[in-house]
Here is the input.
Amino acid sequence: MKPTLKINLNKIYDNAKIVKDTLDKYNVDITSVTKLHCCNPVIVDTLMQAGIKKFGDSRIDNLKNIKDIDAEKWLIRLPSISEAEEVVKYSDISLNSEYDTVKALNEEAKIQNKVHDILLMFDVGDLREGYFDKKDIVDSAKRIKNLTNIRLRGVATNLTCYGGVLPDENNLTNLVKVNELLEAELNTNLDIVSGGNSTSYTMFREDNPVKGVTNIRIGDTILFGRDCTYRSHIEGMNKDAFIIKAEIIEIKEKPSIPIGRRGFSALNSKPEFVDEGIRKRAILSVGKQDIDMDMFPLDNDTKILGGSSDHLIIDITDSKKDYKVGDTFELYMYYTATLRAFTSKYVVKEFI
Ligand SMILES: *Cc1c(COP(=O)(O)O)cnc(C)c1O
Here is the structure.
């Protein structure tokens, strides 16, 4: 059996509904971030049934998957000038921080006879993308105003990515103020302030909204039922919508400490070992080319020992089940593991 990614659509639906209901109370809309599942149209359809109408992906190739779906499509990674034609073709809004790029989008929009919407990214401290200086963003916005086929809709910021900086009243209010500054300088109305990702959801969940934020872009919390600020499971949401199922190709009893002089293991780590005596281990035919280690066995009495590019080793000593070679074994996955499973061509995708 090939490794299989089992996707539970009902669980995703339930999670989306909870997040949407919470944000509706504050009139904040959701852009559901789809890069984890490569913008899978079946998952997008499920999210639409839960009332979500905007989808954001970092890659144009992914957005092509939903080109015929009637929803608003956002490109959330800064566009490359070289892909301007496709950006205008496949996205309705893109997030930008470079005038030259916006100018290229304008040229393309003219050719395609479209108006392309943009948000300007402002960096409030996490130090990934975005204008850092208020004068800079104002100057750019003024030049952008003269572009005939570009419409500036507001601002966005990215948090808790490079620097791990959390959203708070202070940095998000700073973003809202930048939007107000642009509105004043351009003498226009800008209706979108997109205040971060899943970590910003925590603020609303804790009834601590920031006035002026109108949108957040959420991937993780909807897909994994996880509070990303505390990295903890949210009571009442589903953490196991994505399960990897793989076949056992070996079961043997071995010592818990490797024998011999030790260098680096596969994929560059230098693991530490604890002596727990002889343990019964199962090897699964799936590895880091298809998954990552942020996952948990459904059988609570087992645990992951490690893995390399094509193997995953599980300690099954304490399990109540009598596993045999040829049996399958299941684990639920968090972000990185699921991301790889979606990208790997060796993994079969199955909806349940
Ligand atoms: C990935 C991404 C998001 C979503 O982040 P989550 O932590 O999955 O909610 C939002 N905005 C941008 C720009 C992103 O790249």
Q: What stands out?
A: The chain has a mean pLDDT of 97. Residues 169-186 form the longest helix (18 residues). Residues 242-351 form one domain.
